[in-house]
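QA checklist item 7 of 12: single-chain prediction sanity check.
[x] sequence parsed
[x] length recorded as 219
[x] structure emitted
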Amino acid sequence: MSAGSYEEVRKYRDLKINEFIHDHFLLNQFHDEIMQKVVRIAIKKIEKENGIVPAPFSFFVMGSAGRFEQGLWSDQDHGIIYEETNTNANAKSYFLHLGSEISKGLYLAGYEYCNGDVMASNPAWCKSYSEWQQQLTIWVKEANWESIRNLLIFIDSRSLYGEKKYIEEIKNYIYQSIHSEKLLPNTFNNTIYHKKGIGILGQLLIETHGLYAGQLNLK
């Protein structure tokens, strides 16, 4: 199926997705197909507006998509790594623009925006290769709750489009750093943490702020 717009991708997604509800592997392959179509459409749109992509890059997914664990419904968790050279001084603004276009396209194709803003439209998740190395070094050295949580989010990543080696190389660096800095106990404690859903009086605890304030988080 070839699609020229996000709306066409959404129609195709809605038409076909129920065919895969009984096969988890095929369902996640289908999600990959849909998201890759969105990325290709976004690249074409940005290239028409801003010229060709200035450098090799990887668009990667995280969360349930990164773990190949998406269900029928899924929100967005993704980022961009790009190669930075002296000849592409405008690469940062270009890839942020591309990240925003991909985020919009995924939303129109049926994937809700990430409530925590873990998306390639956010400068925190759209960086050059060297910037990602620096950021990950900081997270490892800080070793606080938030930094370890960000490391765990990144560890789930896999390349969906572009240069797969970027993710593989940087994840290898993370694994080595976690062991060398002896962060495994902190990583384990962060992983097993579960937000409480029931109060001491047996009441259900709803979200108190953000987009889903007043609602019960069943995730």
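[x] summary fact logged: Residues 6-192 form a domain with the Beta Polymerase; domain 2 fold (CATH 3.30.460.10).
[ ] second reviewer sign-off
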